[in-house]
Design brief:
About 40% of the residues lie in helices and about 25% in strands. By secondary structure, the chain is an alpha/beta fold. Among the domains are: about 130 residues, N Utilization Substance Protein A, Chain:P, domain 4 (2-Layer Sandwich); about 60 residues, OB fold (Dihydrolipoamide Acetyltransferase, E2P); about 60 residues, K homology (KH) domain (GMP Synthetase, Chain A, domain 3). It comes from Algoriphagus taiwanensis. Participates in both transcription termination and antitermination. This is Transcription termination/antitermination protein NusA. Its main location: cytoplasm.
Length: about 425
């Protein structure tokens, strides 16, 4: 393989990988200089000129002519007068000899190795370019096409043919994709595994929801409305605390849009995830009350030392505060940064009811706490549910629930 074919084939490969010309020339020179060092032990007195467009390569060995008996004759950058005159008869001592080195002089094996090295250098460069490109886009939304669906992840390709990964744990549970579908997600992180960049996408991250709001709500994108915090149960429910420093702007109204036009686009992308947009306030009790929306809170008691909040609601509001699967109260707790305990206000006809703490000598305290987390703070509120309801709403075992029912029923039978 001559120099022209080697350089042209490399240049074509490099251009197909979108490598710029200066980088291409630098890689070529590095590889040829490595060949020179291997053959001549040094490349300090060599001049390498490359024209990638024409496929031209010129390598010159530069040496100073010294007398045949000189002590410096064995230096790498010196040549004896006799040897110099074999190249050009009229050379004299003190002049420099520019001796052209042909690629063939390095041997066929060295040239083949250089070709493989060039291709590998481009592939390594391609990996670095991919890593740096997506490292800069972490937290940003991108679109990619599904090309393979595996049990634990979905493989996608971007517009440049790069492979991206959407793991099962970063997918919304209701997501159902087919090959060829276009998927929106954020760049979650970029890992380097065995020298290969792995771009991880996410649709469950709160940042994904934040970017969707930026796309749909100009006031958020422009910074007129600030998203203070987002908490999510992907595919089920999300709570977004927003604030505006301009009194003329209603942050909640702007995010929801006329007849819900803005938020509907976000909800559709998140597989009908319910989104509560809440006006942020530093008034903790008011913030908690808003966080428990759509439930209406009657009163609140805050214990700053234990970071717990007791919330009292009318009986018909308890289930709203807790929400389907307990999502509403869990998200509210995460949003405000306090553990929230829900209690029912007793009406007149419920005065004969008994609070669960009265059974602490028969029921373990942790079990009572587990019941209270779901808004069950009295004996009758527990007995009003079926065993199946309790299994679904708590993490208690069936035998434990049977024993709770037995203890509570005995109280009222007496």
């Amino acid at each position: 393989m001559d120099a022209k074919i080697l350089i042209e084939s490399f240049a074509e490969f490099a251009r197909s990988k979108n490598v710029d010309r200066p980088t291409m020339i630098r890689i070529l020179e590095d590889v040829f200089r490595a060949m020179i060092r291997k053959k001549f032990e040094t490349d300090e007195n060599f001049d390498v000129t490359i024209n990638a467009d024409q496929g031209d390569l010129e390598i010159f060995r530069i040496r100073e002519i010294v007398d045949d008996n000189s002590e410096d004759i064995w230096d790498f950058d010196k040549i004896s007068l006799t040897d110099a005159q074999k190249i050009e008869p009229d050379f004299e001592i003190g002049e420099e000899v520019y001796e052209k080195i042909e690629l063939e002089e390095f041997g066929r094996r060295a040239v083949q190795m250089a070709r493989q090295t060039l291709i590998q250098r481009i592939k390594d460069l391609e990996k670095d370019i991919l890593y740096n490109k997506y490292e800069e886009q972490v937290g940003e939304i991108i679109s990619a096409e599904v090309y393979q669906i595996l049990s634990r992840e979905i493989l996608l390709i971007d517009s440049e043919g790069n492979e991206l990964v959407l793991p099962k744990g970063e997918q919304i549970p209701k997501d159902r994709f087919r090959k060829g579908d276009t998927v929106k997600a954020i760049v979650h992180r970029v890992d380097m595994i065995n020298g290969n960049p792995k771009v991880i996408l996410s649709r469950t991250s709160p940042v994904f929801l934040e970017r969707l709001f930026e796309n749909e709500v100009p006031e958020v994108y422009d910074g007129l409305i600030t998203i203070i915090k987002i908490v999510r149960e992907p595919g089920e429910r999300a709570k977004v605390a927003v604030e505006s420093y301009d009194d003329r702007i209603d942050p909640v109204g702007a995010c929801v849009g006329m007849k819900g036009s803005r938020i509907h686009a976000v909800v559709r992308e998140l597989q009908n995830e319910n989104i509560d947009v809440i006006n942020y306030t530093e008034n903790l009790e008011l913030y908690v009350s808003r966080a428990l929306s759509p439930a209406k809170v009657s009163s609140i008691s805050v214990n700053a030392d234990t970071k717990r909040i007791s919330v009292f609601l009318k009986p018909d509001q308890v289930s709203l505060a807790i929400g389907k699967g307990g999502h509403n109260i869990k998200l509210a707790s995460r949003l405000v940064g306090y553990e929230i305990d829900v209690f029912r206000e007793l009406s007149e006809y419920e005065e004969e009811d008994v609070v669960l703490e009265e059974f602490s000598d028969e029921i373990d305290e942790w079990i009572i706490d587990e019941l209270k987390k779901t808004g069950l703070d009295t004996a009758k509120s527990v007995l009003a549910l079926t065993k199946e309801d309790l299994i679904r709403r708590t993490e208690l075992e069936e035998e434990t629930i049977d024993e709770i029912f037995r203890i509570l029923r005995t109280e009222f039978e007496q």
